[in-house]
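Following the same procedure, sequence and fold were stored together, as reproduced here.

>
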Amino acid sequence: MGIERKGQVCIFVHSGSRGLGHQVATDALMLMEKAMAKQDIKLNDRQLACARINSQEGQDYLAGMAAAANYAWVNRQSMTFLVRQAFAKMFHSTPDDLDMHVVYDVSHNIAKVEEHMVGGRPKQVLVHRKGATRAFPPHHPLIPVDYQFTGQPVLIGGTMGTCSYVLTGTDTGMAETFGSTCHGAGRAMSRNKSRRALTPQDVMDELAAKGISIRVASPKLVMEEAPDSYKDVTAVVDTCHAAGISKKCFKLRPIAVIKG
């Protein structure tokens, strides 16, 4: 992967469609509630509102989701370019000479049409990974040649004050979870609760005590993404590793955080 030694500096970019994906889902939710009545789909939770894939509502949602996903890809690629340029400027070198290559770029909270074994037979299905990310095993045809022997890299972002992880996909995950694993720790407190329970200075002091520098665009972002707002990412990763649906590869410790 290019991560070869302890103490190596890595840049971890965690960003998506900046609200566009949420808006797409919110708009689709209302349309799908109507579609459920029309298509005779009954559920006990409004958050599970859905429509048949080949219906107009289903196709409209997938098109909107794809647009948001494309924006997210470009967003991350743009930030990656700017990071490489900043390092090149600071060290009077070039990104290539600094060996600043991308390990992997992967989406989460997204639906993908894939082929999986269902009932002992290969079947084309739409896998909607919510709170999850793709984790394909070694030798899978959809992962790059460089990772054919290791399995797909799985990027698990921690919080500003905790570690992050790089995992790899496994055959067990492919068989049991449609090639999926966690994409992070998950929130322990909602954003609103975090803003009520914490102050920006509390969080800044906690990070400083750990030797972590931070630059942030808005003080409220510090509280929303505070370490205490999330579950223990190490416990979550250990669970996925123990279950065999993904395998621990690298642990990354934060030294500096930029929140946009």
Summary: The CA atoms of residues 109 and 130 lie 4 Å apart. DSSP finds seven helices and eight strands in the chain. The chain has a mean pLDDT of 87.
